[in-house]
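Components:
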Amino acid sequence: MIVMRHHVPRAGLTRDRVAGEAAVMADEVGLGRLTLAGLAERLGVRQPSLYKHIDSVASLRRDISVQAKRELGDVLARASVGRSGADAITAMSHAYRDWARRHPARYEASMLMPSPGDVEDETVSATAIQVITDVLTAYRLEGDDAVDAIRAFRSTLHGFVVFEAAGAFAMSADVDRSFERLVRGFIVALGQWNETVPPAR
Amino acid sequence: MIVMRHHVPRAGLTRDRVAGEAAVMADEVGLGRLTLAGLAERLGVRQPSLYKHIDSVASLRRDISVQAKRELGDVLARASVGRSGADAITAMSHAYRDWARRHPARYEASMLMPSPGDVEDETVSATAIQVITDVLTAYRLEGDDAVDAIRAFRSTLHGFVVFEAAGAFAMSADVDRSFERLVRGFIVALGQWNETVPPAR
DNA sequence: GTTTAAAGCTATTGACAATAGCCAAAATGG
DNA sequence: CCATTTTGGCTATTGTCAATAGCTTTAAAC
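Structure:
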């Protein structure tokens, strides 16, 4: 029996819309529980149809990652604009944590490394990191000193955010206060950054 | 055709041996790429046979996690024994990073939270964290001050280790040196820890 | 030595990503 | 405004995985 289907409108998907809805779904259910079947249902489409817009699940995650890096970079830039020094670091740190809490899967995706040769991903990653670099250069750090400080700053924020998202801070103490002290502690360390240089061996 | 099988000896698996080999495999291929088919082949057994020793892949990961927490806790305890203050923190930090680098999947598993009610996992998790707590109490921190410091210390180490494992420190600067400065920076912050208390609001 | 429990096996199911190949809907271009 | 092409859907199917059912043999227990 031949079924005639008249005027079934298209869903009107694009690669960006698919990645966008995937990010929303991932933030709800977790990046690891994102499935094409579930995503297709949300988009009102069958699962194989998604392959008109993505190459694979890995490429979808990559698209989420690129979008997320752009968003996070923008958030950090907006938080630090017009501020400098400790003030900028504090504002940026809080913006970082808040965004990560609001978008756990996006945050997770934003920490994925670009594949070698993926110029778009490499560019957006570098741009986001540049925002952090710019804030720290107010401390007049140069060369390896700056690199070490940036690595320390990123490590500090990332570690806290991951533990918080995992629910690893179960003790009764106020987590907001712990974060505030973490940031202040980092600023203290930055103020003495040249005293942390290990002796040449 | 009936096949007669005489004297096929058993593989002699136990839950611990399965988890142990799973940990080895995971460190080689990545925790996310651990499959029962691959694990069974390594153990000289068919995939469904593993279910005589595990309940599910989730439970296998939990078993890896418990083993890993025990190992990491022991490593940290051994690194800090006989030392105190900044010396203990430095030694423990390096032991932490070295172990994580040697056992990336085990490390990842060790950061999984215990399921509520899983007494064994909760116990071994608490024991590992206690090692860190003990080292920091040499700084005479009490109550929330100590909790904040422990959270900061764990965040700092974890963030660095995760970024290093992900290959996120691609810049030319020496990663060992960056780690050394991170640890020294944390110690500097600890020395001024009460100056990081946020003003009451 | 007989019974029983444990540990292996084959066969099968169901979720998922992924591919092939078809058809309708938009877009393009005289 | 009709003809052609391109695009975005679709069904059907495959392969990989975790997981279950049910059988058989090994090894322990009595």
